[in-house]
Amino acid sequence: MGKALEGVRILDMTHVQSGPTCTQLLAWFGADVLKVERPGVGDATRGQLRDIPGVDSLYFTMLNHNKRSITLNTKTETGKAIFERLIEECDVLVENFAPGALDRMGFTWERIQEINPRIIYASVKGFGPGPYQDCKVYENVAQCTGGSASTTGFDDGPPLVTGAQIGDSGTGLHLALGIVTALYHREQSGRGQRVECAMQDGVLNLCRVKMRDQQRLAHGPLKEYPQYPNGTFGEAAPRSGNASGGGQPGWVVKTKGWETDPNAYIYVITQAAAFPGLARAIGREDWLDDPEWNTPEARLPKLDRVFAEIEKWTMTKDKFEVMEILNPLNVPCGPILSMKELAEESSLRATGTVVEVDHPTRGSYLSVGNPVKLSDSPSEVGRSPLLGEHTSEIMQDVLGYSAEEIEAARRDGAIGREDAEQPAAA
Ligand code: CAO
Question: What is the pTM of this model?
Answer without folding.
Answer: 0.95
